[in-house]
Structures are given as C-alpha cells and as structure tokens.
Amino acid sequence: MKAVVFEEYNTFPVLKDMPKPQPGSGEVTLKVAGAGCCHSDVSVFQEYTPETGTHTKPPFILGHETTGWVDELGPDVQGIKKGDAYLVYGPTGCGHCPHCVAGQENYCSSAATNESLALGLGRNGGMAEYMTVPVRNLVPLGDADPIGAAPLADAALTPYHAIKASMPHLGGGGKYALVIGLGGLGQIAIQILHALTGATIIATDTKPEALAKAEAKGAITVPSDENELKEIRKITHGEGVNAAFDFVGIAPTIAAAQAAGAAGSRVTVVGIAGGKAEYDWYSKPWEQELMGVYWGSIPELYDVANMYRNGQIQTEIETYSMDDALVAYHNLVDNKLSARAVVLPNGRP
Ligand code: NAD
Ligand code: ZN
C-alpha cells in the first residue's frame, strides 16, 4: 500500500510502498477514508530531534487526523461491523493511569516514556491506504460523511477541548473571545465558540482570505498588524477579551493574546511554535491565566462527532489524491491552503 512516511529527523516525508498492516489483538484495520494534514506534522518533520522523546523516533507513517471504514477485525474483536465508518481518536496512552481510564490518553502519565504518543506520532498513522487502530480509539460516525469528518479528529477536537476548558470565562452575557490564527483549527474554533457560548468572537490572522472566511462565520475580524490591539480594545469597549485562543503560538501572538485580555481572563496557547511568554508582577491584566493544551479526550471526540452530525460543525476541506499527498504538505508549509487539506488514500467511494 502507499503511505507517507517520516523517515529521518529534519527531512521532508516521502511517499512509498509499505506492507498492508494486520490487526493485532484488540485492534481493527481501517481502510482510510480521509487523512488530514495538520500543522503539527510540520513540527514533526522540521523540528523533532532525538531529544524530543522516545515517541518521536522515525520512521513512522504520518497522519493523526483520520477516518476510515472497518476492513478487518483483530482475533478477539467483537461488536464491530466490517464496512462501518469511524473517526480515529489519535492519542495512545498506557491505558491504565488515571488520565487514560478517564479517556484522556492525550495526558497519559507515562507520555514521556511511551513508545508512541499517538497514531501518526510514533506509531503508524493514517496517511496510508490502511492503518490499524485499537478499538478503544474508534468513535462511530454512523451515516455521516467520513471524508468531510477527517478534520474532526484534531482540527475540531483540540479547539473543542480548549474552549470547553475556558467556559468559566465565557459563560454569561456580554463576553468576548479572541481567536488568533484562522487556519484548520481556528476556523472550526469559531463555529464551536458559536455553539457553546454567546460570546462576541473577534478573529485575527495575517491572511486576508482567512479573515474573510472568519467574517462569513460571524466573527468580527481584525488584521494581525500593529493596530490589532487598539482595535480589540475598541471592540471590547476598553475592557479586553475574556478568553483568547492562540492557534499560532509564536512569542508575538502569545504577547498579543495576553495584552488583549481583560482582568481575570484566560489565554490558551494551542499553536506549537515554541514561543515564550513573558510575565512579571507588573504585567497587566490582573489575575490573567495562561494555559497550554494538547489535543482532547475520547468523550470529547464523541461530542465533536455529534456536533458534526447535528450541523454545528461544518468542515471545509480541499482534497488530494494519495499521489499528491506531498503536494498537500508543501502547500501547508507554504501557508497556501484555502481549507483543511485532506488526503483520500482510497479515492472517493
Ligand atoms: P494552519 O497552517 O492551518 O493555520 C495557521 C494559521 O495561522 C494560518 O491561517 C496563518 O495565516 C495564521 N498565522 C500565521 N502566522 C500568524 C501570525 N503571526 N498572526 C496571525 N495569524 C498567523 O495550522 P493548523 O493546522 O490550524 O494548526 C494551528 C497550530 O496549532 C499549529 O501550530 C499546530 O501545530 C497547532 N496544533 C496544536 C495542537 C495541540 O494539541 N496543542 C493540535 C493541533 C494543532
Ligand atoms: Zn496513561
């Protein structure tokens, strides 16, 4: 089968032939429907080093944002039907620590020493015609379109978790939320904010097309430039926002998120760009929280799947054939995508 493999640290992934995987105990093989290209993959092939951990060691097949149809059942698997469509929960934890038993494999207590962080991050992922998945990581899609659903596994699950965790700051009327970075995750974040809160949404990006798409979703847009903070103050009547979500994560965007906040606000850094935040006692606003988040939990992915089936989350995708999978990654690196890139390793059914 064809697969996109991260072969060696600091090298671009390659498209190559790999053997079709066999499901082990407690696993199924999925015929992959859609494999999303996430910006985190860029960190994997551009920034991972032997020092970043046991789970980052190449080679492995990329793809941690996947949907597929059940193709084969492992020896002891029951209650799952061949041909049914599933969304893949990516994180793979130890399965028995307090976080894993709560379905938060993303925060597994043994993450630092586990061989795999997730399907597509250590263990082979879904950027291939077939992949094996532990049954615990399967979230049913019913009759929902699995190709359009692929981005849910990360581009929706991650903002959903971040926004849910910020609900104490956004409950009640007259609240403001700021979304920085309107790519794959940011565009879905706006929809989730609408569905979960009554907050006025302010959205910022450097790309005019991304701002236009956010505006069409009902956000007030502000270009990310030197006037950004002044504009946000004006929109919030001088108070600042109650919660900010930074989907870029460089030092200037973290600083902007902090400076745009009201007293008692929350800044959530989602973007993996390694930006450092600054703080001292004189920093304003008072009582501001700064939080980093990583992905989400299995129960949260069930919520996200329901939101998709109920029309509260609509994904926007541009699709690529398996032969063009590396073109999709190049376009992601060059910030040339106009929607989430989803590779269809088996074409359209
Ligand atoms: P993307 O490439 O689809 O979108 C990034 C957007 O940010 C683009 O619209 C781009 O124009 C905009 N941008 C770039 N620089 C900017 C700046 N200085 N100011 C304002 N906007 C700017 O990326 P994505 O797949 O949506 O991922 C977003 C980030 O979230 C990445 O850093 C990714 O690694 C990270 N991520 C984190 C998690 C997590 O669990 N924490 C999960 C998935 C992705
Ligand atoms: Zn665990």
List its traits.
349 residues; alpha/beta; Quinone Oxidoreductase, Chain A, domain 1; Rossmann fold; 2 domains; seven-stranded mixed beta sheet; six-stranded parallel beta sheet; 11 helices; 26% strand; binds nicotinamide-adenine-dinucleotide; binds zinc ion
CATH superfamily of the largest domain: Medium-chain alcohol dehydrogenases, catalytic domain
Q: Which shape, going by the Cα principal axes?
A: globular
Low-confidence stretches: none
Span of the ends, CA to CA: 17 Å
Structure description:
The chain has helices spanning 39-47, 98-101, 146-149, 157-165, 167-170, 184-196, 208-216, 228-235, 251-259, 298-309, 325-333, and strands at residues 2-6, 14-17, 27-36, 60-61, 66-73, 85-88, 118-119, 122-123, 130-134, 138-140, 176-180, 200-205, 220-223, 241-246, 261-269, 289-292, 317-321, 340-344. It is an alpha/beta fold and 349 residues long. The chain folds into two domains: 2-154 and 296-344, Quinone Oxidoreductase, Chain A, domain 1; 157-292, Rossmann fold (3-Layer(aba) Sandwich). The strands form four sheets. Strands 3, 5, 6, 9, 10, 17 and 18 form a seven-stranded mixed β-sheet that branches. Strands 13-12-11-14-15-16 form a six-stranded parallel β-sheet, with helices on both faces. A three-stranded antiparallel β-sheet has the order 2-1-4, with no helix packed on it. Nicotinamide-adenine-dinucleotide binds next to helix 1, helix 6 and strand 12.
List the helices and strands and how they pair.
Layout: E1 2-6, E2 14-17, E3 27-36, H1 39-47, E4 60-61, E5 66-73, E6 85-88, H2 98-101, E7 118-119, E8 122-123, E9 130-134, E10 138-140, H3 146-149, H4 157-165, H5 167-170, E11 176-180, H6 184-196, E12 200-205, H7 208-216, E13 220-223, H8 228-235, E14 241-246, H9 251-259, E15 261-269, E16 289-292, H10 298-309, E17 317-321, H11 325-333, E18 340-344
Parallel strand pairs: 7-8, 11-12, 11-14, 12-13, 14-15, 15-16, 17-18
Antiparallel strand pairs: 1-2, 1-4, 3-5, 3-9, 3-18, 5-6, 6-10
Helix pairs in contact: 4-6
Bound molecules: nicotinamide-adenine-dinucleotide and zinc ion.
